[in-house]
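Worked example 3. Consider a protein that binds zinc ion.
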Amino acid sequence: MRHIRLLPLIAIVLLGHPAASAQRGELRVLFIGNSLTSVNDLPRMVERIAGEAGWKGRIRCEAVTRDDSSLEDHWNGGEAVKAIRSGRWTHVVLQQGPSSLPSSQAMLREYTAKFAAEIRARGAAVVLYGVWPPRDRLPFQPAVTDAYRSAAADVGGRVVPVGEGWAAAWRRDPSLPLYAADGFHPSSAGTHLAALMLAEAVTGENLDRLAPPRRRAVAPAGVDDLQLETIHTAVAATRPSPAVPSIAITIDDLPTISVLGDEIERAERTTRELLAALRRAEVPAIGFVNEGKLQPSGTIEPRRVALLQQWIDAGFDLGNHTFSHIDLHRSEVAAFERNVTAGDHTIRRLLASVGREPRYFRHPFLHTGQSREVRDRIDALLSKHGYVVAPVTLDNSDYMFAAAYDRAGAAADTGLVGRIEAAYLDYMDAVVRYYEEQSLAIVGRPMAHTLLLHANALNAATVERLVSGLRTRGYAFVTLDDALKDPAYRLADDYFGPAGMTWLHRWALTADKRGNFAGEPAVPEWITKAANGG
Ligand SMILES: [Zn+2]
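Given these inputs, the predicted complex is written out as structure tokens:
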């Protein structure tokens, strides 16, 4: 990793004033980290921003930083622990390098836990300052965020995912200079974005309320108004929002699925267009893979593996959807189990190349087992392999429209293609409205939904319009991780019937709420006919 030293080897910087007893409304923040904290004097920036943001009490930021140091180095060095013990901190902010490699992830978690015990013993909150990878390792950003999130989750602390803030800023303005010239340390703009996010985290203030002159007053010289606007928009985009109402997009049957067949050229076009549309829509997504499709003739084809690599390169997640899309309700349990474990060799390798591993499993046909015994046996296998079941609340029949769409496209019937797109978007709108009502009836409130789509040409053509329509209706788009934080997903599912149905109805049936499931939008008859080639 390139790392140009910007400060002397050991720079222990103590800012602010000697420890004084914490007063009501006073924030005392201790930063422990390396040059990613000390460069551009991040702690002082946080102090100034909090002051301008109208934080009523006093705020004091101090720091113990050493270049090139991990939390382990700080722990062994002793200065950081001494500083924690010597002040009445309200927050202690921990930071080390990107930590995307499994060994450094483990160290981050181990030493965060050690520090957390010291921090908690003094009544302060634990904050993890999630950083970013060097410029030449940008695809590792999700792994960096994962590492910091896990470390924070272990200790009930809070992560401030600054690297995600940088990524959000680059989605608006890819030329925004957040890196310094060495391609790793932050520029003053990069530190400013970090300071805004950290100031919000420790003060609880929403910096949207900061008037433009005040924004300008605390911004570094050299950041122009447009860039400042981009930075503030990125802070807002990364702000943890109430989990509802939101949607996580999950896409099944990767690499692609078409009624017309699996020719590589079609698969490449669909993948390219689907990924481009998802990126333009600026939504997170996870794709569920059937690895059997990588080897239609028995040997793995690199051009098909490359399709999955594109998902990784675009920053999306991948999960396991079994090797051959096997149906649990029509097969021996042992055969299903073999199909699960055979289903992740390639995605495991691809994800490992960016420091991640597969974490989600989606049952084909949403068939989860017709007895408690089978369901529990599969769940045990999944958790042994590190998988969490990916539920679906917004179930639908997109594949019917997709079949009609592919056939219309093959017949070069552009009029029909357009009508199918419009009918599909109307249908999906009705689907979301229907499940909105179901979530009010069953969960008692709007919720963080999980939307099932398939990797087909129709979704490639329409997903941007789908997303923008739902945004207009107030939906945020979140990762599957974030959606599953909605406590609704902890409701019991003891449905062992034959149907592959939405988790909303499983919860309702389990709780013996008969519920009124009527009104689920139907696929128009002309679509069904066109889908069947009629
Ligand atoms: Zn499927």
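Take a moment to read the result before moving on. Confidence is low (pLDDT under 50) at residues 1-24. The two ends are 59 Å apart (CA to CA).
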